[in-house]
Amino acid sequence: MKNVLVIGSTGQIGSELTMKLRSIYSGDIVAGYIKGAEPRGELAESGPSMEVDITNARQIAEAVDRYHVDTIYNLAALLSAVAENKPLLAWHIGIDGLLNVLEVAREKKCAVFTPSSIGSFGPTAPKDGTPQDTIQQPKTVYGITKVTGELLSNYYNLKYGVDTRSVRFPGLISYVTPPGGGTTDYAVDIYYSAVRGEEFVCPIAPGTFMDMMYMPDALRAAIEIMEADPSKLRHRNSFNIAAMSFDPEIIASKIREHLPEFEMRYEVDPLRQGIAESWPNKLDDTCARMEWGWKPEYDLEMMTIDMLDKLSRRLSKP
Ligand code: SER
User: Fold this and answer.
1) Is the CB of residue 119 below 6 angstroms from any atom belonging to ligand 1?
2) pTM of the model
3) Which atom of ligand 1 sits closest to the CA of residue 117?
4) Tell me: the pLDDT tens digits for 17-71?
5) How far is the CA of 68 from the centre of ligand 1 (A)?
6) Among positive and negative, which fits the CA dihedral 76, 193, 128, 306?
7) For residue 258, with 0-12 CB atoms within 10 Å meaning exposed, 13-18 middle and 19 or more buried, which class applies?
8) Quick one: which atom of ligand 1 is closest to the CA of 179?
9) In the annotation, is 142 catalytic?
10) Are 114 and 48 found together in one domain?
11) 183 CB less than 6 Å from ligand 1?
12) Could you tell me if the CB of 283 is within 6 A of ligand 1?
């Protein structure tokens, strides 16, 4: 049995992770939400939910007490592009919020998962085969909160024994809940345009490579790292994980193999392009593979087949 609190349960990752956790564990999987983003449908009906704003430590503590929570998945964040327009809010949610989670976890002995990102690296890190342990000097406030979050999470582990673990997610692609305000969002939006038979206007320039991952692999990573044998973990916050790396031309050609009429043109967004250029092309995930057996299942071909199939069914529903 496991009782889990998911903070940010109605977001891009949370909406799917909460359902997946409910399908695996027999305890209470609590969907924490903020006002205006209440769970709906299956997410609301399949288990308990509670208002838990990460910036409100009392709400986090109440949820942990009420449901005897042993693990907190902290998924609250502003994504990279939107964070550049709201840097103080990005810090408030990413760091003040994380400290609330870590303090509650310390007092009440919970394990904590807080995702980091490819965005935790900056232009000074090696771009290809970016190592697990290397220089992290991000240019974005999103990346700065992610590096700080990694350091704080390790600090709480070393100083207080809080069981903090995490992975550095690539851009995540899914047909369920769309992301909002990320730099990698184009790799989701492109499938929506393709399935709707619309031309896709790409905000990222050709030749810009970024790591990407299909959501089922990302959910598995988030669960497997928390299930891993701690005696085997040399790292904790945060593990590089990787599945595929492509630029807009490669994903567009892959889609055209299935939908030959698909068209794309470029209207590069300087904000997102600048962020993308500061990020790695491809992470080296050897440590995750060695320390807890990480292995992706989906490559670009498998993901594209599944995305096009699932999205066309979804979008054809009235
Ligand atoms: N998907 C995130 C973003 O683009 C990166 O982790 O902001």
Assistant:
1) yes
2) 0.96
3) 6
4) 999 999 999 999 999 999 999 999 999 999 999 999 999 999 999 999 999 999 9
5) 32
6) positive
7) middle
8) 1
9) yes
10) yes
11) yes
12) no
Q: Where are the alpha helices (DSSP H) in the chain?
A: 14-24, 41-45, 57-66, 80-85, 87-91, 97-108, 141-160, 186-196, 215-227, 248-258, 270-278, 286-292, 300-316
Residue 154 and residue 48 in one domain = yes
Domain containing 129 equals: 4-170+215-240
Which DSSP symbol is given to 47?
S
How many domains is the chain built from? 2
Instruction: State the distance from the centre of ligand 1 to the C-alpha of 231, rounded, in angstroms.
Output: 31
The answer, yes or no, to whether any atom of ligand 1 lies below 6 A from the CB of 117, is yes
Let me know whether 160 and 227 are in one domain: yes
Q: Are residues 224 and 281 in the same domain?
A: no
User: For residue 1, what pLDDT band results from cuts at 50, 70 and 90?
Assistant: confident
Look at the alpha carbons of 305, 308, 314, 318 in this order and tell me if their dihedral is positive or negative.
negative
From CA 200, how far away is CA 172, in angstroms rounded?
Answer: 19
Residue with the smallest CA separation from ligand 1 atom 6 is: 117
Same domain, 292 and 249: yes
Gap from CA of 97 to ligand 1 centroid (Å): 19
CATH number of the structural domain spanning residue 69: 3.40.50.720
* pLDDT tens digits along 64-79: 999 999 999 999 999 9
**CA 268 to CA 206: how far, in whole Å?**
9
Relative to the CA of 172, which ligand 1 atom is closest? 1
Q: Do residue 165 and residue 31 come from a single domain?
A: yes
Residue by residue, DSSP assigns 164-193 as EE-EEE-EEE-SSS---S-STTHHHHHHHH
314 is written with which tokens?
């979804």
Query: Left, alpha or beta for 68 (phi > 0: left; psi -120 to 50: alpha)?
Result: left
Same domain, 125 and 203: no
In degrees and rounded to multiples of 5, residue 60 shows phi and psi of -65, -45
Whether residues 228 and 266 share a domain: the answer is no
Which is catalytic among the residues 33, 73, 142, 175? Answer: 142
**Cα(66) to centroid of ligand 1, in Å?**
33
